[in-house]
Amino acid sequence: MTKMTLSLITMSLLASANIATASDSLATKFNLDPAKAPAQNFDMSNWKITLPELETEGSRKGKALEIAKPELSNRETPYVHPQWFYTDPQTGAVVFVAPNEAPTTPNSKNTRSELRAMLATDYGEPKNNFVVASHPDAKEYGAIGGELNATLTIDKVSSSGNYKKNGAFAVVIGQIHGSKNEPIKISYRKLPEHEFGSLAWNYELNPPKELQNAKDSNGKKLRKDIRHDIFGQYNLREGDADPQDGIKLGELFAYSIKVKGDIMHLTFTKNPGEANQVIKTYDIDLAKGGYQGHEVDQGYGNDWMYYKAGVYNQCNTKKSSSDCQWRGMEAGDYAQASFYQLELKQ
């Protein structure tokens, strides 16, 4: 055996040892047990999850698979899906996976492996959702405000899609959803040729009920997203420079969405806990309306809301949407994220 061969073997063993050490370090840092199911490492007591395959029996037969919170949070017989929702065997992180094409919920073209906060058990019950402090019927709801904290890595986004569509190569990893629209949706987007991806958040204008589907004189919906770059730039196109201030696949970052009183406090942290940590914050009055001068926006002061977290793949095969491909999981046509911290307070 030559010295070069021995050197290559040594380098390979060292690399494997470094990966194992890093995995052990993450498991220790976040107090995660790789041998346990998600509900045994994370508090799932106020969540249910939607997964990208069909129910095969019962009242939801033929609809996207949904695991209700009693089953999801059961620590004695915890729920795991080997493909869409499971524990990383090295780090203990909870892994969410959503392919480019699979069964979806009725009002979406995109697949999801995504948690939905459930403060009660019935969708139609006010106690199931939260409101801001100034809501006129605040006492009828499950909570006033709340907080979602997450630390995660994006492991995979689709490598196919229409560069002119912001949904291509993108995934949503955290939201607050209202009765119709979203005061916040956090997305990550990385072009195939880039090393770095971009993290952004959207505020969706919330028009009066009668104008929810109305359009302006240019034929564009009044109900639209106002996007904010955090790290990188959300709307990069083919040929644009790599966003050096962005986040790589597999790179740890964190977000916090805290609603206190009427204010939504957002915190985004790149390289959390490291010497080169970068923190960006935003404060938004959810009850005020008229976001950034858009008079059509009524705000969310009279609306009810709920948190969501996981993977909501923005890539789909519709040409009118992101025009991504579906060649199977083996070809990498899916989105994946690993959460090391996932904490809901309400």
UniProtKB/TrEMBL annotation:
InterPro entries in the cross-refs: Alginate_lyase_2, ConA-like_dom_sf
Source organism superkingdom: Bacteria
SUPFAM superfamilies associated with the record: Concanavalin A-like lectins/glucanases (SSF49899)
Keywords, in A-Z order: Lyase, Signal
Signal sequence region: 1-22
MF-aspect GO terms: lyase activity
Pfam family, one: Alginate_lyase2
Domain Alginate lyase: 42-345
Name of the protein this chain belongs to: Polysaccharide lyase family 7 protein
